[in-house]
Amino acid sequence: MKKIVSFLLLTALVAGSLFAAGGKDGGKKTVGVCMPTQSSERWINDGANMKKQLESLGYSVDLQYAEDDVQMQVSQVENLIAKKVSCLVVAAIDSGALVNVLAQAKEANIPVIAYDRLLMDTDAVSYYATFDNKGVGTVIAKYIEDKKQLKTAKAEGRSYTMELFMGSPDDNNALFLYNGIMEVLKQYIDNGVLVVKSGRTSFQDTCILRWSQETAQQWCENYLSAFYAKDKLDIACTAFDGFAYGVRSALEGAGYTAENWPLITGQDAELMATKNIISGKQTMSIYKDTRLLASKCTTMVQAVLEGAKPEINDTTQYNNHKLIVPSYLCTPVAVDKSNFEKIIVEGGYYTKAQLGL
């Protein structure tokens, strides 16, 4: 009888400790995942992939979208802290606005992982999972360099007009991307091979708040009417597929056709962007497999919750003004009409049916 009572007491103690550690979800640890918006297909995919992969490991997931509302994201993080989640994964809208609430997370001993956008000015962040953001810019720029044969253009008397549409100033990734672009293209701007008729080449002059497609379209419309009434635009160097959509609309409104359509870059290889690449309305995009990024971030979550160390491949680049955040950088890949089937379709990212093939 004593053995039965002891066994029952032990079972109750174990169950109680699991309940205390895991909250109200049957002993599961809960991971709070904060994504910036559902207005972009890529963030919907990121959230879905994170949720799927974390749940496959037995975690409960509280997935939140803030719809690009900074204060909403602050409130969502506060609520997740109040719920005593075991870990936070945050893709910030404006990381500067999260400093105080992340300090609360640290005080509550809740580990924080930055997802794709570095959390700035905080020592509460443990790890960072992202794509090589400077590398994204480098790949975009080298694509332009190769397709327009810029290395020999000066000697051959060729030049091209170009305008820049860069990412949001409150997103640390955007500056990395811009720097990657400029490391390759600045020499051609300086020697006159690339002519930016608007004169806007600095990050401050080319960054678009909240990655707004509407702003990109308005800028492009203004450029076309003010600077390209007689000369055509040859290159739209954009940092995001959404910008490419805005540029496309502006070009169509200005009467551009397949005969004088410019080279248009992008990032994320969204479904619409890939369709535009097939139709010739966008030249290329940067393929970022969100399944891979979610996988790397999931291993970080698992590591911090199990007291292990995740795989890291960068310990130097990402200084958030408080510490250098240990990071895993996924490799970006350029996709265009020549390789989208091999990379995107055969890779299982989109099906032929989704692409209308």
Pick out its properties:
alpha/beta, 357 residues, 12 strands, single chain, six-stranded parallel β-sheet, disordered N terminus, elongated
Write a structural description.
With 357 residues, the chain is α/β, with parallel strands linked by helices. Helices cover 46% and strands 15% of the residues. It is built from 13 helices and twelve strands. The chain has helices at residues 2-22, 41-56, 70-82, 99-107, 133-147, 150-156, 172-190, 203-206, 213-227, 241-253, 271-279, 290-306, 340-345; strands at 30-35, 60-65, 87-90, 112-115, 125-131, 160-165, 194-195, 235-238, 263-264, 284-287, 327-330, 333-336. The strands form three sheets. A six-stranded parallel sheet has the order 2-1-3-4-5-11, sandwiched between helices. Strands 7-6-8-9 form a four-stranded parallel sheet, with helices on both faces. A two-stranded antiparallel ribbon has the order 10-12. It is elongated and about 65 Å long. The chain starts with a helix and ends in a 12-residue tail after the last helix. Residues 1-25 have low confidence and may be disordered.
